[in-house]
Amino acid sequence: MRQTRSAGILLLRVDDGAILLARRSGEVHNPGWWSIPGGRLKPGETDFQGACREFREEMGSLPRMMHVIVAAPTRVFGGVYTTIAAEYKEYETDCWEPQLNWENDDWGWFYTNDLPSPLHPGVVAFIKTWLEV
Question: Where are the alpha helices (DSSP H) in 70-131?
Fold first, then answer.
């Protein structure tokens, strides 16, 4: 059986350390959970290409990227999910307003000491491992 490959982007505002999270709508798996925009990769896509496509699908667009700080694959539910953390300058996100599709019903910038609940366990693990919280 072939493993599924998925990827998502965690935006980190370098100016103040806030991260962008989206709340999953009632029309998807794990409704109400706060997570990062992402999903399954299409055949031939790299993790980065798929993560960018999924982010744009769910959030309408992607703010101008400063730089990727880590791409961390994790085994989940019989597949591999790659979280790509990217740092952005606050002034680049201040003029950016997401246009959510049906997969999410809310979004926000959060600090790691005040995260929303329920938070997807994969996001919790990534934050603890890679953002040293």
Answer: 90-94, 121-130
What are the helix (H) ranges across 1-114?
47-59, 90-94
Number of structural domains in the chain: 1
- Looking only at the bridges linking them, the beta strands covering 4-13 and 79-88 are parallel
Q: H or E segment at 67?
A: strand 67-76
44-88 per-position pLDDT tens digit: 999 999 999 999 999 999 887 668 888 888 877 678 889 999 988
Burial class (CB in 10 A: 0-12, 13-18, 19+), 14: middle
User: What CATH number did the domain enclosing 21 receive?
Assistant: 3.90.79.10
Q: Which residues have CB under 8 Å from 127's CB, separation 6+? A: 19, 112, 115, 133
Range of the domain at 67: 4-130
**Paired tokens of 22:** 């989206």
